[in-house]
Amino acid sequence: MNLSRSRTTLDRRIAPQPGEVIDRSTPVEFTWNGRAYSGFRGDTIVSALAAAGVRMYSRSMKYHRPRGLLSATLHDPGCMVQVDGDPNVRGAHRLIEEGMKVSSQNTWPSLEVDVRGVNQLAGRFLGPGFYYKTFIKPQRLWPVYETVLRQFVHGGRLSRTPGPEAYDKRHAHADVLVAGGGPAGLAAALAAAERGARVMLVEEGHQLGGHLRWSDPETAAGLVRRVAQAETIQVLTNATVAARYDDNWCAVVQRHPEPGVAERLLKTRARSLIVAPGLLERPYVFDGNDTPGVMLSTAARSLVNLYGVAPGERAVVFSANPDGDAAAEDLERAGVEVVRFVDARAGQDIVRVRGRKTVESVELADGTRLEADLLVTATGWTAPTSLLNMSGDVPVYEPRAARFLPGGQAGQGVFATGGIAGDGSTDLLIAHGHATGAAAAVHALGTRRQHALAVPATSGRVDATVPADASVPAIPDLAVEEHPELFRSSTHGMVDFSEDVSSKDLYSAVAEGYDSAELAKRFTTVTMGPTQGKHELMNAIAVIADATGKTIAQTGTTTWRPMYAPVTLGALAGPSQDPVRYSEIHSWHEANGAVPLVAGQWIRPEHYGDPEQEVRAVREAVGIIDVSPIGKLDLRGPDVPKLLETVYTNKWSKLEVGRVRYGAMCREDGVVFDDGVTARLGEDHYLMSTTSSGAASVWEWLETWLQTERPEWRVHVTPVTTAYTSINVAGPQARRLVSRLVEGIDLSAEAFGYMRVRTGRVAGVDDCILWRIGFTGELSYELHVPASYGLHVWEALLEAGQDLGVTPFGVEAQRVLRLEKGHLIIGQDTDGLTQAYSAGLDWAIKLDKPDFAGKPELAWQREHGGGTRLVALQPVDPDIVPAEASQVLRPDGRIGGRITSSRHSPTLGRSVCLGQLEPSLAAAGSVVDVRLPDGRTVQAAVMDRLAHLDPDGTRLENDSVPDEPQAHPTPLARGPLSVTGPTEELRGWQVAGQHRPAELSLTDYTPLVKVGVRAEPTGAVATTLQAPFGRVHRGENTLVIGSGPGEWLVLAEPCSGTRVLADLGRLADDAEEQVSVVDLTHGRAMFRLTGREVTDLLASVCALDLSDDLVPDGSTLRTTVAGVVTDLVRLDEGGRPSYLLHCERSSGIYLSETLLDTGRDRGLTDAGAPAAGYVIS
Amino acid sequence: MMQLSCPWCGPRNVNEFHHDGPLHHRPDPTATTVEEWRHYLYIRENPHGVVEERWYHAAGCRKFLVVTRDTRTNTVIPAEGESR
Predict the structure, then answer these.
(1) Total domain count for chain A?
(2) I need a labelling partner for A1089 at 20 to 30 A (CA). Which of A134, A144, A260, A486 fits?
């Protein structure tokens, strides 16, 4: 074929074929490198171009050699193209769309004339390891090398603006997941569905049927029809089971699952996995084997039979198997002249193809040279055992069949069928698939039954539709047909088409000493390109085996790792689900210019514009700060003092009611990991505070003691961090300000001293807790206000303190204030190795206690020294603020410590620091060298006390006189969810004024009374409450939720809290067991999702299988939803599935908005308040 | 991602749990030598095989559970001890 003809548009379409997948009545226009082309609906980019006579689609990576169609699959290495803004699109797989702009990539100035094609002339200089050997030294030239090497990168152009399509990620569940939609996979899916299993059938191509699509379209159509009729088979085409992890956790990637979605990752838990990917045809290695016009028999057959395209005019067919023979027949039927049938089984061979941009002639081993434009090879198969390898199997090489076969070690719940398992007629493959599907279903349904029995929601009763056991059908053996071991001719050719690695390169690598498959792979990058071994693995191993004089079995394979097929980063990332937490005052902070600070999950105000002014306001007048993220744990029971004695380093048994005490916690290695103050509110009732970031780990630490080491202690821990909005009021005027809002508490210095706690009414809000503490070094009160009134109290403080100069301050001002005062922050001034004596906590470590966590190691530390010391430092130059983490140097120049905190102190007008120093440097009065990040060294003096300001605490002795209290009416309670539109008042709550009914709705249920109860899991109280763990009990006026073992949440209508608490209190008083009752009305965000698609919606954000048999109506469970620990209560409403969801209040906005966002496509509507009131029982 | 079968909640993804190390019991510090105490604190057998471990179901029932796991295969022998 001459060049001028290839430039004109040919029509290579042949008459309609029985199995074709194109719709000839619907033409589709697109462009290729700026030129208009036309194909039919159902055409791939490459089939449409091939129909127009285009044969070259790309240039190869290293040598820029012309490349054409090889395998006509998703993995075809020569068909990577740019489509609109997307690079590296698989052109032999992607379907054409109207107006699509397709271009070749990494070619310049054009595909036809690529100047970098000269690379192939320099090929002998670009051998394996060229880049490693060349671009090493000198290091200063690396940026230059990068620029040069960038030019050789094989890839398209990435669009820097986000494309119009979204990427999605969600969870899925299947009894049986079938990877591969060929005859065996289809039969397996049908058999599994017949047994009652829910089946997910995943096919990489656009149609089911596998090789039957070209070899026996009639049988394929019959199977596909039956699959379509089976209700419990979900078919995903254009999708790949890309990875399999422990317990059949599979990554299923769907490409273009629906309009507007580029890719979707289904994180699928399968009870059984059936691996049925069929076989991949492998290329033959000979001189010129990558010339456009050389293709595999399966590629030629799919062009002819699926797309009605003649792949050439004059063909040579090189065949070692019946599929190659059939390809020759297909070609003749398509009007292609087969000029020679070269039979490998008869010892015939091909040695060379000539032609640059397309095949011009083929040379045989006997020297014959045949004019042809097409060479079709059929030299054997590669078994894509990837999913089996990921399941722990070690496939075994079978020389008689010249391919690997399953090793039978994949373990329970993983099955293999189809060509990967053996050979046989279509009937035998179908029979094997059918038996495998049945066995997989038996395994899956047995597992499902065990699952259903294990979840508390079913109370051990399981629907009879899940069989207890069933006979496991015998899976017949598939024979293995003999196939010649045919990998390379007498000439050298391309092995890895995507990485441009030839058989000659592999010989060189072995000669250089890279004489194992894994070494040669890394040195030459063979199998490391986009096709990841699918075409080249067997040839690579065979060539390495040949070069090393070993057998293929001795050589072994490289490792098949996830992902089997490429997954975009967009699909892996999916929609953002990073939980954030907000305090109740967040809206005020936002409206008042707060600069946000991300602190763990919390969004906090760093400052409101001028942190130094905020510091001065606290020192001179009064400031208020939102400290809601401080962890708060409600502790109840007679053994709380024992617990406190164990987890804190200091003494607690004599703490009186009404007092607060500071404590530090150590792990058993003596490393301090959290601190805070704990108040004794009542005889058996304490409130513990933790650092903001430590709330969860401290809770778990307490539970560790209570559940594992000291199960006999009677203590109940309830997290109440966001049940309260916490506001610290600090400054010389703090007493006057707080006294204006407080009713019933004497705030005078004598009546309410330092480190005391009181409870009472603040700004009309009952049940507030006030601590007098002093993190800032000023007179200060920490107010813990039921969170539904948090914003109200904040605004009341600002209103009442105008004349006192009240100023809101942020986290930055607080850091400066505490640093001036020399108070440490765990994790800032300590690290994961800092034992308590290195944290300046000597005064709080009581080694005379019989035992506490960390005591043995701290006793050792005190006795033997060791560790650094926490000291205050002041730079000699007061204007220099050494950056945190600046190194402190010893006289010998070695590092002897570091600056842990540093700021400019507005109060002292100089820089102040805390630091960790070696004991030799830590003596008060000494001057140490501090090396700044810019390399300068400055001097700093070590102070004798940690406090830079007011070391004797005189500011805390403030004896200002309280102002006259003023009565305040009870304000309206507000929920945590955003209320849009008009509001109205409902029994003390501000709720949405209108209900917007919808098919799928999210309704705010915040105002319900919510009371947490803890008791023995199976005691008398459990019997009275009637809801076992995992179930709900609908009482007369209450709904009792069995949230956990020995844990309940009692719901009641809004404003009935007093009655419910009284009822439950009586229950607790009368019980002989330890019972605690905690009001969580203000601590939980609660809303309800209702609608037929609710389970489907939740699958986007929740990993659990929520099907009806596992989570029936009236059940409850706790799990993670969109990254937030959430309780789900299934409470169907008028026959429609409905879930009540509740989580920590501070996560409510995030969770509800994430759900509304996720459900927008399904029409999820923010329905406001419930239409018919809060019906819960 | 492997699953753990919680004796209270049933099978759940392992990322709902926190690993608390091989099953251990805190010795009485007043009755142990420094060597014994440090062995308890820092020495782990880390077997290539079956190990008894403690896990905490942090995102579920918030109970500690004992799991017998084969570290070679991640096969979990169903949890023993307290259950419904």
Answers:
(1) 4
(2) A260
The predicted pLDDT at position A124 comes to 55
A920 has pLDDT over 50: yes
Find chain A residues with C-beta within 8 A of B58's C-beta. Answer: 696, 700, 1125
Range of the domain at A780: 586-819
Looking up residue A425, the CATH number of its domain turns out to be 3.50.50.60
On whether any CB of chain B is under 8 Å from the CB of A866, the answer is: no
Q: What is the pLDDT of residue A118?
A: 67
Residues 6+ positions from A599 with CB-CB distance below 8 Å: A629, A692, A693, A811
The answer to whether residues A849 and A779 belong to one domain is no
pLDDT band, very low/low/confident/very high, at A147 (cuts 50, 70, 90): confident
Residue A908 within any structural domain of the chain: yes
The CATH code of the domain that includes A752 is 3.30.1360.120
Provide, as residue numbers in chain B, all residues whose Cβ is less than 8 Å from the Cβ of A247: 1-3, 74
Question: Which residue of A lies nearest to B12 if distances are taken between CA atoms?
Answer: A1104
Strands in A660-666's sheet, in edge-to-edge order, are: A660-666, A672-682, A685-690, A631-636, A716-719
Q: Does A409 touch chain B (CB under 8 A)?
A: no
Sort out which chain B residues have CB atoms less than 8 A from A392's CB and list them: 73
- In this structure, the answer to whether residues A1048 and A1161 fall within a common structural domain is yes
Which of A669, A700, A862, A1102 has the highest number of chain B CBs within 10 A, making it the mutation to test binding with B?
A: A700
Q: Is residue A685 in a domain?
A: yes
Q: Does A247 touch chain B (CB under 8 A)?
A: yes
Residue A513 CB coordination number (10 Å): 10
Among A182, A183, A186, A203, residue whose Cα is nearest residue A254? A203
Whether residues A673 and A813 share a domain: the answer is yes
Q: Which of A850, A1117, A1120 sits opposite B9 (nearest CB)?
A: A1117
**A454: nearest CB among B10, B18, B60:** B10
* Model pLDDT for residues A860-872, shown as the tens digit of each residue: 999 998 899 999 9
Cβ within 8 Å, pair A1029-B26: no
Per-residue pLDDT reduced to its tens digit, A799-833: 999 999 999 999 999 999 999 999 999 999 999 99
Q: Are both A765 and A871 inside the same structural domain?
A: no
The CA-atom distances, in angstroms, between A941 and each of A901, A910, A1104 are 15, 13, 58
Q: Based on the domain organization, do A794 and A859 belong to the same domain? A: no
pLDDT of residue A49: 97
- In sequence order, what are the residues at sequence separation of 6 or more whose Cβ sits closer than 8 angstroms to the Cβ of residue A1124? A579, A1143, A1144, A1147, A1150, A1151
Q: What is the mean pLDDT of chain A?
A: 93
Tokens 């490393």 belong to A671
Does residue A8 sit within a domain? no
Residues of chain A with C-beta less than 8 angstroms from the C-beta of B61: 1029, 1044-1045, 1118
Nearest to A1127 by CA among B12, B16, B61: B61
Tell me if residue A955 falls in helix, strand or coil. Answer: helix
Mean pLDDT of A617-629: 97
Mean of the per-residue pLDDT values of chain B:
89
Structural domains of chain B, ranges and CATH numbers in brackets: 3-77 (3.30.2270.10)
C-alpha to C-alpha distance for A443 and A430, rounded to whole angstroms: 20
pLDDT-above-70 percentage for chain A: 96
Is residue A779 located within the same domain as residue A845? no
A782 and A678 within one domain: yes
| Domain boundary, last residue among A432, A458, A484 | A458
Note the pLDDT tens digit of each residue in A841-897: 999 999 999 999 999 999 999 999 889 999 999 999 999 999 999 999 999 999 999
Q: How confident is the model at residue A122 (pLDDT cuts 50, 70, 90)?
A: low
**What percentage of chain B carries pLDDT values higher than 90?**
76
Question: Do both A630 and A738 map to the same domain?
Answer: yes
Helix (H, G, I), strand (E, B) or coil at A329: helix
A1067-1126: pLDDT as tens digits: 999 999 999 999 999 999 999 999 999 999 999 899 999 999 899 999 999 999 999 999
Instruction: Note whether residue A339 is domain-resident.
Output: no
